[in-house]
Amino acid sequence: MFRTAYWKNDTESGSGSVGGRQRSARIGVVLGAGAARGWAHIGALQELNALGVKPDVIVGSSIGSLVGGCYAAGKLDMLEAFARSLTRRRVFGLIDFSFAGGGMIGGERLRVRLETELGDIRIEDLDIRFAGVATEIGTGHEIWLRRGLLSEAIRASYALPGVFEPVRVDGRWLFDGAVVNPVPVSVARALGAEKVIALNISSERLGRGTAIQDPFGGGEPPAALTQRGNDASSVIARWWRGSPRLPADPDAAPPGMMTVMVNAFDILQDRITRSRLAGDPPDALLQIKTGKVGMFEFHRAAELIDIGRDAVRRAAGELADHIDFSRVEAPNG
């Protein structure tokens, strides 16, 4: 059995008590999308466990589904060992290029590896409630994968459009859940989580985007764009005033296809995440800042796992505002 962390305000959340003893609120942990940066979730979950926070519900989108699914299946140590073993050469060796299907990578080698490790584990047989989020091609439906083979659900959830081939599940063609719900707090609540901790992977490659109303019209920029301390605004203001460093050299080659795809997906995911979290905020949001680590730098697992651990350590005080760590039960058995 898993240890359970009690929340201070159980009575306010409707958790109530049993036989005069206040029972624990069901804790949900949500693991956001982020491609390679999602290795940080491994360290974050390990540190949450060290604090006594072990979820009753775990939900993931994209790589968050991979990490969350392995955690729910008791395979997190296996995943960590695999992630740490990756080098640039080994990552390349797992890629099977396919230009005939719906993505550049067929995903067969990864499928075999997943099925070897997870076998015939089914989601409904897990001790922890789990769901992976995917997107249906054609309809745009947000699909919650709560039953069936765990390995299949994970593959569908991380099938990045244009990169991995989509996965067929129960007659539906599915790809990356980050397209519709990068940090699926709503799913955790639907699965019964009364208190939700969400882990959002963020990169320093993106600033807070804004609208440039007339970038070629000259004149002074709006006052909002001249504020110091807002990195994105400062950059735009310098560009507007004719900084020699911005825009880029007009004779430079345009960005390559992968650069465009990755940047577009980064921006899309960032905007959707902000919107979804504003509409359904978690009880505690941990922003895991991964610096300038790229989406496909899977060989940097050791660094990212440490980043995840450190993020939870630094947020422990904030978590303690919601969780009474002094009332953590010891493991049964």
The coarse silhouette is globular
Whole-number mean pLDDT: 78
Helix content estimate: 25-40%
Could you tell me the strand content as a percent range?
15-25%
Count of alpha/pi helices = 11
Radius of gyration equals 21 Å
Class from secondary-structure proportions: alpha/beta
Q: Give the ordered list of helices and strands.
A: EHEEEHEHHHEHEEHEEEHEHHEHE
- Biggest sheet character: 8 strands, mixed
* Strand count: 14
Unreliable spans are 1-23, 228-247, 326-333
**What is the CA–CA distance across the termini?**
7 Å
Helices, strands, pairings?
Blueprint: E1 6-7, H1 10-13, E2 17-18, E3 21-22, E4 27-31, H2 40-50, E5 57-61, H3 63-72, H4 76-85, H5 88-93, E6 103-105, H6 108-118, E7 129-136, E8 142-145, H7 150-157, E9 162-164, E10 167-169, E11 172-176, H8 185-190, E12 195-202, H9 231-240, H10 257-279, E13 284-289, H11 301-320, E14 323-324
Helix pairs in contact: 2-11, 3-4, 3-7, 6-7
